[in-house]
């Protein structure tokens, strides 16, 4: 059966259905993460009201999810090198289920923080393993498209989180937010069952010396036997196995199998090209987070409330539009990724964010300085916020993950991405835990003008990066 699939009549350039379905399944973990981020934007409003907590406690609860993702990121890279990409996804799903159930039960603030910490660890795993698995399953001609699916799934999950905020808001105060945060347990449990039936990454199998198993997987995820053999030859070359070796199992050094020493080599003994790769990967993740998108996704209701919307149902509905904008432009992005290239999307995205964030900052400044209600500001703020999200989602959002995944050599990929995402989470924590405090210090309009300046700096940075479209 496997050989039959490997030698099907599909053209060499068509999208392999098994590879696509494997990536889509793995991307469920990304959708769960997106849901958690989206649903917390509304849940925080109701948690604050129900548990009578302060703004500082709200900021700490919001930031804890991302802070606890740090150990998850670092553990995910090593775990996926040691136990495999597939079982790491299963582990992440299990942790997601536990954290969601604990959050939903949470009778008081301390339990919520513990549940949020557990969710944070699973977020760290999800951010690493879904892009790595997707990149290693995907054929080169569709790598940009397929590696974008986890980011698209995050956006779909985010939209579902906003939608559930709107509908669960209609329940009682104590029940509504608990339903919001408890939902992720269901898809997480389903993913555990699904991943048990899917294949392991062929690159990881070769790293373990299991060449025969890797060949069977490649026959499934390639359109022709010739394509599978060519991919296997390239992977063996990267791992250091003789390309003419036809054994099913090959002895590979323990250092290669487990990923031991990869971080030390990456930081202390790296060559100039690998050092530049590390700096580039960290840089794109830093600019993704300090550009302000995390603040908009988490504090959307607070931003809209500043313009004069006070009804909670209307606030939740306005926030749904953020999710709709992200999903629409994420779909557009995945079809552009392998057509126009990564670098062009970076530049268009950053340029658009500079203009829209500046417009948003000026509008909010006018609102905050006005003694009367500014009627036009409500519609303008909502529309421009959607445009900010659209520009980020068509480029910087998905391209950051594709770019940072594909530029690392195989030996450093999982743990190198782990370092990049750890930095991503640190900068995200700084933004989400300081947003309310900075808002009070320089006004919300000032915050978004600051974000516009940061994206102008990011525009220059992206201009210095090389294009990776179509490269091995």
UniProtKB/TrEMBL annotation:
Main location: membrane
Species the sequence originates in: Glycine max
Organism lineage string: Eukaryota, Viridiplantae, Streptophyta, Embryophyta, Tracheophyta
PROSITE patterns: MFS, SUGAR_TRANSPORT_1, SUGAR_TRANSPORT_2
This protein's name: Major facilitator superfamily (MFS) profile domain-containing protein
Membrane-spanning parts: 23-46, 87-105, 111-133, 145-163, 175-199, 277-300, 315-337, 344-367, 373-404, 416-436, 442-463
Key words of the record: Membrane, Sugar transport, Symport, Transmembrane, Transmembrane helix, Transport
Membrane-topology descriptor: Multi-pass membrane protein
Major facilitator superfamily (MFS) profile domain span: 22-470
Family that this chain belongs to: Belongs to the major facilitator superfamily. Sugar transporter (TC 2.A.1.1) family.
Annotated signal peptide: none
GO CC terms, sorted: membrane
Cellular localisation: Membrane
Highest taxon of the lineage: Eukaryota
Entries under InterPro entries matching the protein: MFS_dom (IPR020846), MFS_sugar_transport-like (IPR005828), MFS_trans_sf (IPR036259), Myo-inositol_Transporter (IPR050814), Sugar/inositol_transpt (IPR003663), Sugar_transporter_CS (IPR005829)
GO MF assignments: symporter activity
Gene3D superfamilies for the chain: MFS general substrate transporter like domains
